[in-house]
Design brief:
The protein is α/β, with parallel strands linked by helices. Helices cover 28% and strands 23% of the residues.
Length: 533
């Protein structure tokens, strides 16, 4: 069966037809965004909240479903817009003619093939120089860095870049990827999507890449290697291998896989630990990346290492939130109070969505202002003492029996009660996991010299907002929170340049004590008790 896709430019005009051959009974969203021919979109795996999978049926639009009526307006439904995650491709059907919008989180005209190898500004690639490639394969995005194979760590990269993970059509979190990978042929499909793009990177670098270091969580690693993932799909969880090996893959240079310390503490956490140790981070320190899965490492003053992980879901990637958006020019990354009300701050232009840091900033501001109570509920306008707060609270409305707060003039941005709940759940899981990790090391929050936040969210979030929402514990020393950038990629660069460092890292990981929160009998109960401010 064929699907004819027509891409809609921001101007509203259709252009660039793509014809896909699809198999019957697949979800429409998966058929489109896992095809390898369409710019990836970070989808919420059928939760029906983000609306990113919307498509317009140019002919014979099916009747709308209740889930679609909650996300799409009546005008959009009348025009034929539907949610592809709720639509199945039926056998023997007529060809489908669909329109999909240009991904608003991507520059116009940019697709996956355009994102590969771009020299770093002001540092053109040297010719005929052997290179190594460091890769951070994240659930949402892939970051890479090419360095001269001879030279010291810290030298400017010859080229660097990033692209959205093309596996995103299978869902935004680790468990949805594993569920898709467990299907017949699913693992090979997901593996092939990423391998193809990395081959493109190596090709555009002139074929001079001698080796690759790929840092990723255990699920992303095994899917990339096309290895058995059954041990990660159900308890008791187990890994199929321990990493710290070179993998030979078709049409790719030798790929070094860092140590995989535990089922959900992967090579990205190990690589990040190497970078933190190499940077001589003051001890005791905690290193964590606040992504779809928070992997946490504690290094005590005497050098003992404790590791754990906790699933957070995609909310801190801006996915699954009703106005969620990846960070970019049109994403609100911060909110402030002005005499006129709430103000959304972007890196350019008006806000058309809210990034993860934007949500944390907004919810922290509303909590400090008293517009959210201790349970995370919106406060009615008449309960606000200050006129400014009453004016902001006047934007509270009910849609389908659910409250939401309109943030700006018009109805372009809002914060729903469901969005607040998602952040509260993430906060509860993160804070409790951090508390358990410190307790395992015999430390209180006041003893921590440095709480290292890796990744983009750690780099841009305001530590005061994290404290307001309870992500970071009371008693943590002032100034202890430190953004360390992409520590996993930094560590991957260290290992790519000198793979022998992997032996030392493997020894550290073998000696590390793993804290398995899934086996903690009271973790779930304590987690539920902490959903609130």
């Amino acid at each position: 069966m064929k699907i004819h896709l027509f891409h809609i430019a921001p101007s509203g005009a259709s252009h660039k037809e793509t014809v896909l051959e699809v198999v019957p009974y697949a979800l429409l969203s998966e058929a489109i965004w896992l095809s390898g021919h369409v710019t990836p979109v970070p989808l919420c795996a059928g939760m029906g909240r983000c609306g990113r999978c919307r498509v317009r049926f140019a002919l014979h639009a099916p009747p709308p479903l209740s889930a679609e009526e909650e996300i799409l307006s009546q005008d959009e439904l009348a025009l034929g817009w539907r949610l592809a995650c709720r639509r199945q491709i039926f056998d023997g059907g007529a060809p489908m003619y669909l329109e999909i919008p240009q991904n608003p989180e991507f520059p116009q005209g940019c697709d996956t093939s355009d994102q590969m190898a771009r020299p770093v500004a002001g540092n053109g690639m040297a010719k005929n120089v052997p290179l190594v490639l460091a890769v951070d394969l994240g659930t949402t995005s892939v970051q890479w860095r090419a360095l001269a194979a001879v030279g010291n760590y810290g030298k400017k990269p010859e080229a660097a870049g990033s692209f959205l993970n093309p596996q995103a059509g299978a869902g935004a979190d680790v468990m949805s990827r594993l569920a898709f990978a467990a299907r017949p042929g699913g693992r090979r499909l997901l593996s092939g999507l990423v391998r193809t793009l990395l081959r493109n990177v190596a090709t555009r670098l002139g074929g001079r890449v001698e080796r690759v270091c790929l840092a990723a969580n255990t699920a992303m690693t095994d899917i990339f290697l096309d290895r058995d993932v059954s041990g990660l799909c159900a308890a008791p969880y187990r890994t199929s291998h321990n990493g710290h090996e070179f993998a030979g893959l078709p049409d790719l240079p030798p790929v070094y896989i860092p140590p995989l310390p535990a089922p959900f503490v992967g090579g990205d956490a190990a690589a990040a630990l190497l970078a933190a140790l190499y940077a001589e981070t003051p001890r005791p320190f905690v290193l964590t990346d606040m992504g779809t899965n928070a992997e946490m490492t504690l290094v005590t003053a005497c050098g003992a290492v404790f590791m754990t992980s906790v699933p957070l879901g995609p909310a801190l990637e801006g996915i699954g939130m009703e106005c969620g958006r990846l960070a970019g020019p049109a994403a609100a990354t911060r909110f402030s109070l002005t005499p006129a009300g709430l103000a959304a701050h972007t890196s350019g232009g008006s806000a058309r969505g809210i990034s993860a840091t934007g949500y944390i900033s907004l919810i922290a501001l509303l909590r400090r202002s008293g517009l959210l109570d201790a349970a995370g509920r919106f406060v009615a306008p008449e309960a606000c003492a200050m006129p400014l707060m009453r004016r902001i609270a006047a934007g509270l409305e009910w849609l389908g029996g659910r409250p939401r707060l309109l943030l700006l003039s018009g109805d372009s941005l809002w914060l729903s009660a469901g969005d607040v709940e998602e952040v509260l759940k993430v906060r509860a899981a993160f804070a409790l996991a951090l508390e358990k990790l410190l307790a395992a090391g015999g430390l209180a929050a006041r003893d921590v010299a440095c709480l290292c936040l890796a990744g983009a969210l750690g780099e841009y979030v305001d530590p005061a907002d994290l404290a307001t929402l309870g992500f970071t514990p009371q008693g943590l020393p002032v100034g202890a929170v430190k953004a360390v950038g992409n520590a996993a990629l930094d560590g991957a660069a260290l290992l790519a340049l000198r793979p022998e460092r992997g032996e030392t890292l493997a020894r550290i990981c073998r000696k590390a004590r793993q804290i398995f929160l899934a086996k903690d009998a009271v973790f779930q109960q304590e987690y539920l008790q902490r959903i609130g401010f």
